[in-house]
TrEMBL record:
Domain (Polyphosphate kinase N-terminal): residue spans on this chain: 25-129
Task of the protein: Catalyzes the reversible transfer of the terminal phosphate of ATP to form a long-chain polyphosphate (polyP).
Residues involved in Mg(2+) binding: R411, R441
Lineage: Bacteria, Pseudomonadati, Planctomycetota, Planctomycetia, Pirellulales
Region (Disordered): 188-207
One MF annotation (Gene Ontology) recorded for this entry: metal ion binding
Binding-site residues for ATP, renumbered to this chain: N63, Y504, R600, H628
Keyword Kinase: yes
Descriptive protein name: Polyphosphate kinase
Requisite cofactors: Mg(2+)
Residues of the active site: H471
Class in the EC hierarchy, top level: transferase
Modified how: An intermediate of this reaction is the autophosphorylated ppk in which a phosphate is covalently linked to a histidine residue through a N-P bond.
EC number of the protein: 2.7.4.1
Amino acid sequence: MPIKPTPKKKRKQKLVPGELPVDRFINRELSWLEFNQRVLDQAADPSLPLLERAKFLAITSSNLDEFAMVRIGSLKLQYQRNGMVRDPSGMTVAEQLQAIASRCHAIVARQYQVLNESLEPQLAEVDIQHIDLNACSDRCSEAADARFHEDVFAVLSPQAIFDERPFPLLQGLGVHLCVRLNSSHVGPKPYGGETNDDEPNSANPADQDEEWDFVVIPLGRTVPRLLPMPSDRGHAYVLLEELVAHYIDDFFPGREVAECIAFRITRNADVELREDSAADLMVGMEDVLESRRQSRAVRLEYSAGASNPMMSFLSEKLELRSEDLFAIDGPLDLTYLFTLHGIEGFDSLRDEPWPAQGSPDVDPAESMFTTIAAGDLLMVHPYERFDPVVRLIEEASADPDVLAIKQVLYRTSRNSPIVAALMRAAEHGKYVSVIVELKARFDEARNIEWAREMEQAGVQVIYGIRGLKTHAKVCIIVRRESHGIVRYLHFGTGNYNEVTANIYSDVSLLTCNEELGIDATSFFNCVTGASEPQQLQHLASAPITLRKRILDLIEIETLRAQAGQRAEIIAKLNALVDTQVIDALYRASQAGVKILLNIRGVCCLKPGVEGLSESIKVVSIVDRYLEHARVISFRHGGEVELYISSADWMPRNLDRRVELLIPVDDDSCRKKLLETLRTYFKDTTNTWVMQPNGAYQRLVSGEDKVRSQKVLYDRTCKIMKTIKQNRMTRFQTHEPRSAD
């Protein structure tokens, strides 16, 4: 459900050139929720394969979880300090929380409408059945009985709740059961043992003047949530909480179960390390993880139909208000649909495979050092495999001429081949220095584990900079060659994670450019040595020079437009939030600069406003791959300046993170990157156009349908096919064995 258009005022005040109105920003949180709505619209799109729609629905659920943990958690903390503080859009914290609650409830309602009225019925038609244990076959019933009593019952432990005892510390985002028992026990008075006739706990007369006990059953992670059931055809399943609820009486022999519901707690994850008081960063981050585990609840999801006594009990114990309570008409936590998306035997219900291609400039039979020495390489992932980046580091770990490897790691995979290669390099006696960002949210535990393992292998591990997150994507390999020391570099817009590189759209630049090498080394040593930042000749780094470089480049385009020259800015980013950058773009638009912005998620700029942003167009593309690359182009009088970056245009990236802006100067790389960037603005299939009020409208395509991600994939396949054919036309002889 999009944001409703702002009513037009009868009298429109024209802006004086250069003047900026007060109400020129969109609220960041509501803009993010609009992004999640676009993902939800994919789940509702009947033109997409059924299991892909299920996956998109799972993504919206996962997205909302993180939003509640981080953004709502942060706002609630702000509200405790000062609820009247206003954001750039003019909303107080209290107004934001109210608007967010309303929007989140609407999104959740739409999620379950899509699930209950569309996805589940259509999945059942193609023999993917969600079993109802109260109306299933004898065969299913017998299987469920065996599964519960053989695999589940012995694992779970009910926990009774008493007034004088604290509520158990339940796992955030886990699915739990809460059971209400009719009271008939001896011992401490249970919760709810006293009733007030003037204020009954339930609207149901049967619940009034009753005593009851409450029990929680944490379901944990030991038993899988999605449990297969026998079926004559296709795939049948039941969810763990449904199975346990069906046999709930078995946990309470001799007691009468009045009610059993599923519920789920979301805890505040906006718990930051106080680095000024943390003597040991790793210990401090472990404390943060523990604090997050015990933090206050910010949201409660529960089965719709729960009684008033049940909800009074849970909301009181968790200290939540009505707007924090979400009655769910279906299974809690839709991320189980990720598992369903991966079941075997239903390929026709998923996207056709798009196997990642090799890079046209990389010969698998040739050393990566030889390839890079021949010229810069630019790769567009995931259309081109991430393998060359991994192979470069793996080759470096074993190459006797490599003297040192310096790398920044922000997020990595669980079984990272890059981390393994770095450890091998250290074990082989190479000088390996790695900046591991322990403060990478939700990856802290994994990064702590990797940091310890690398230290044990002899890697010099640096835990970032006090007060900043190190988010730059750079790897420097120092190699001794016949003509001297050469620095081989990798710059990227995405993480060193070969798994996400298959589903995130990112850009890699491989080069041995000497000037970039000098800059990169100065940057890295400045971070690791906590030294005075050096003036970089080509790179720009946050929080020192990146903001100024961006503003200067926008200003140059503005001045050119004011002088009557053609001026243009094209940017592809994940988020646009920074008010200084937005104001600079407004002034550029007022001067006549043509501005094309592809912003995947949050955008606080209002495009298409008369006298303010008429020449600014903002689009967002939601497709099978997550758009993650940051690419920026400035026309610069016809001599286009082209950059890739690790940073979005947000205050956190420009002021509170260590980031890089990297120029792309090689002609072939520039041509490829510009072509890629402009392809996105030709999309007519998955493009959403931002309106001045922050709402988005899907672009209605004509006869010529262009799907940018498909165009990029087909283009890569065509180039690789030609290269393979050319390689097949050349004969290669085996080299004779060298004499021992």
